[in-house]
Every structure is written in structure tokens, then in C-alpha cells.
């Protein structure tokens, strides 16, 4: 992690345009996956220039894309329309054969939900995206979610065609050469009101819960 990243606040709300820039940079400066080598910057794939975020990208659906994905129950979903639109979300990236950071962070996020309480937690959708869609089928993700005790209606584990998942991960700043090199950075968002926070994975569960509760509150109540 660079010195510049270390100086950043663990949870800093950014507006939509700032998010576009930050997410593009995130893939090269965010935390590398614990237990693996330093995270490499992604090499541009053919046609990557066509999806490079620009200051003119104002529409969330166009930016995040409506790529077709599948959840742990085998349901086909459109990434923006069915997963993000009008929701408060917490996004992270995993792969199921990981033996260190992925299960640890998943369990921490379970603690976050517990810290929020049932009513508050029901207002937030947790979204875990696979960085290894070739191996992480819906059935494999289902088994992972059940093992971690987090298989529920407000927690989506997403996989799909590799090209579609690569596009989604690219837009989140997480496209990398191998599943092990994905970032462990968390991204929290109030999608409807274009309010976003980047959250360090080592932040205390209570602090993450407070950030999500803040994003869940109506704008008029601030």
C-alpha cells in the first residue's frame, strides 16, 4: 500500500464523479490480497479504452453496466438494474478457494450486520463479487455463503460469464491478472443519491456499521 493510500481516511464519502475517478485508480493502489504477492496494476485488455471512465460518464447504469450475472441461488440478474439501483450497498470481491482474507472479511461483514441490528441491516444489500467466475459457480458460492453463515436475502454472491464479470470488476476498479490479486477494499454506496464511501477492510465492524447506517438514513434527516 502506498504512502498516499495510507494517509487517506478509512471512510470518506465522495460524490458520483469523484467515485468514477477513484474506482479507476483503486485497482492499482488499494490493498493487495493478504497472503499473496503485491498487487499488480491491470494490463489493458483489448477494447479496454472503450470502457475507460471519463468525466462525461454521468449515468450510473451506463457506468456500472447492466451486465448479466448470477447469484448464489442461480438467479439471473442485471448488475445495475437488479443489484444496485435504488439500494444502499456494500460491495466486496472474493474467491471461494481463498483461505485467508476472503473468509476473514466475510465473517467481519457478518459482524457488521449483527452490529447494525436486524432492522437497520435489512436496509443494506451486501454484494460479494467473485474474482474467479470460472470456478465460482452459483453452487460453489452457495456453499461458501452457507459455510460463513451469511446466506440470506440481503446478501448476494455474484458470478457469471467471465467476460461479463471482468467488465463489472473493471468498472469497480478490481480487474486484475489473477483472482488472488483482487483488492480487499470495501465500497459502500447509497446508489439513488450518488453517495459513496471507500472503506478499509481493517476498519472495526462497528465503524463500518455506522457508515452504512448513515448512508441508509433519508437525506432530509441529515
UniProtKB/TrEMBL annotation:
Signal peptide: 1-32
Cysteines paired by S-S bonds: 98-102
Biased composition (Low complexity): 40-55
The organism's place on the tree of life at top rank: Bacteria
Binding-site positions, Cu cation: 98, 102
Keywords for the protein's UniProt record, in alphabetical order: Copper, Disulfide bond, Metal-binding, Signal
Positions of the UniProt region annotated as Disordered: 35-55
GO MF term list: metal ion binding
Sequence similarity: Belongs to the SCO1/2 family.
Protein name from the UniProt record: SCO1/SenC family protein
Organism: Pseudomonas alkylphenolica
Phylogenetic classification of the source organism: Bacteria, Pseudomonadati, Pseudomonadota, Gammaproteobacteria, Pseudomonadales
Amino acid at each position: 500500500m502506498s504512502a498516499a493510500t495510507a494517509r487517506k481516511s478509512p471512510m470518506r464519502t465522495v460524490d458520483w464523479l469523484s467515485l468514477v475517478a477513484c474506482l479507476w485508480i483503486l485497482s492499482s493502489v488499494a490493498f493487495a490480497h493478504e497472503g499473496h504477492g503485491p498487487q499488480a496494476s491491470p494490463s489493458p485488455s483489448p477494447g479496454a479504452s472503450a470502457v475507460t471512465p471519463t468525466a462525461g460518464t454521468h449515468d450510473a447504469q451506463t457506468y456500472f453496466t447492466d451486465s448479466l450475472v448470477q447469484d448464489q441461488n442461480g438467479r439471473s440478474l442485471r448488475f445495475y438494474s437488479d443489484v444496485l439501483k435504488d439500494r444502499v450497498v456494500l460491495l466486496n470481491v472474493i474467491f471461494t478457494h481463498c483461505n485467508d482474507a476472503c473468509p476473514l472479511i466475510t465473517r467481519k461483514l457478518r459482524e457488521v450486520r449483527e452490529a447494525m441490528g436486524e432492522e437497520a441491516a435489512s436496509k443494506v444489500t451486501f454484494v460479494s463479487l467473485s474474482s474467479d467466475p470460472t470456478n465460482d459457480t452459483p453452487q460453489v458460492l452457495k456453499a461458501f455463503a452457507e459455510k460463513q453463515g451469511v446466506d440470506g436475502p440481503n446478501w448476494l454472491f455474484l458470478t457469471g460469464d467471465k467476460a461479463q464479470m471482468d467488465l463489472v470488476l473493471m468498472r469497480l476498479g478490481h480487474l486484475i491478472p489473477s483472482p488472488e490479486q483482487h483488492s480487499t477494499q470495501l465500497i459502500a454506496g447509497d446508489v439513488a443519491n450518488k453517495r459513496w464511501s471507500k472503506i478499509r477492510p481493517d476498519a472495526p465492524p462497528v465503524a463500518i456499521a455506522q457508515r452504512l447506517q448513515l448512508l441508509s438514513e433519508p437525506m432530509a434527516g441529515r
